[in-house]
Specification:
The chain has 294 residues and is α/β, with parallel strands linked by helices. The protein is built from 15 helices and 8 strands. α11 crosses α15 and α12 packs across α13.
Length: 294
């Protein structure tokens, strides 16, 4: 929105924020919205319930949660940020790592990727929401496995250091997946085809922007009004998240299937041995956007 790409497609988006995140998608299913932005727990749950949804544009492919620790601890333990991922994670043994209630499977996958056991090698401390930053600032935890806006806040304002950059693709299991996606209904695919196509084209332009011009991306985010954070915070998260944004809006079918092992679907996960992920995807919009002239 801040870049003007939607507007140049003739769209004037109106954002409808659900007060209850786990109800995400209700506006779409009630016919009160044309598109919904859903993370894996939500779109997996909708698929399991056989709701009439289709994913049409991927917004995020790599894990957005990254591992940071206190700078003084990294220095005291002589953890080199240039060392291998295994060496960096071994340097954290015994530390208290804060994480929200749902992401521990990805934290375990991170440690397992180098032959370690998160439940044995570190102390996993469940800390939710804004309390994560305060717990870090107060020294109640030594590190965080955390996403935006808490990630950039502790990096910029509390001298945290990035130990494992999963967003950049350090862990194959947490890379090239299907995380946040834009979703619509099969009815909208037919009746509002041009709207969905225009949204996809705008998203594709935004993806190309973040991979080519981070300064312009920061400017667009600030212009959108999406955040009141100061520029340094936005610059920090754009630098970290740009590799996590897919090069195109194409939905990853393998990523959707892999999500069932990494994300706590609400209310339950679909059985992709019986249900075809492809039945819940409308790939034509991304294909057309990619083929169109820039």
């Amino acid at each position: 929105m801040g870049s003007g790409f939607f507007q140049e497609e003739g769209l004037e988006p109106r954002l409808l924020a659900d007060d209850t995140p786990r109800n995400s998608g209700q506006y779409l299913l009630k016919g009160e919205a044309d598109v919904a932005l859903l993370p894996p727990p939500m779109f997996l749950g909708r698929i399991a319930e056989m709701e009439p949804i289709v994913l049409f544009a991927s917004l995020l492919a790599n894990e957005p949660i990254n591992l940071v620790v206190r700078k003084e601890l990294a220095e005291a333990r002589k953890i080199s940020l240039r060392a291998s991922l295994r060496e960096r994670l071994q340097g954290l043994k015994g530390l208290r790592i804060g994480v929200a209630g749902e992401p521990p499977p990805r934290l375990r996958a991170l440690f397992a990727s180098v032959g370690m056991n998160a439940d044995q090698d570190i102390q996993i401390v469940i800390v939710d929401g804004p309390d994560q930053v305060q717990a870090f600032a107060d020294g109640k935890i030594d590190g965080l496995f955390v996403h935006t806006p808490y990630l950039e806040t502790v990096l910029v304002n509390h001298q945290a250091v990035l130990i494992a950059d999963t967003s950049a693709g350090e862990v194959p299991l947490l890379t090239d997946g299907q995380i946040h996606a834009l979703v619509t209904t099969p009815e909208n695919v037919l009746k509002k085809r041009e709207v969905v196509a225009a949204v996809t084209r705008a998203v594709y332009r935004a993806q190309k922007l973040i991979h080519s011009d981070q300064k312009a991306t920061v400017n667009a985010i600030l212009a959108s009004g999406a955040t009141q954070a100061d520029r340094s915070l936005v610059e920090a998260i754009v630098a970290i998240y740009s590799p996590a944004v897919p090069q195109t809006p194409k939905i990853s079918l393998t990523g959707m299937e892999r999500d069932t092992t990494l994300y706590p679907a609400h209310p339950r996960a679909p059985d992709f041995t019986r249900v075809k992920a492809a039945d819940y995807v409308a790939p034509q919009f991304a294909d057309e956007a990619i083929k169109a002239k820039p």
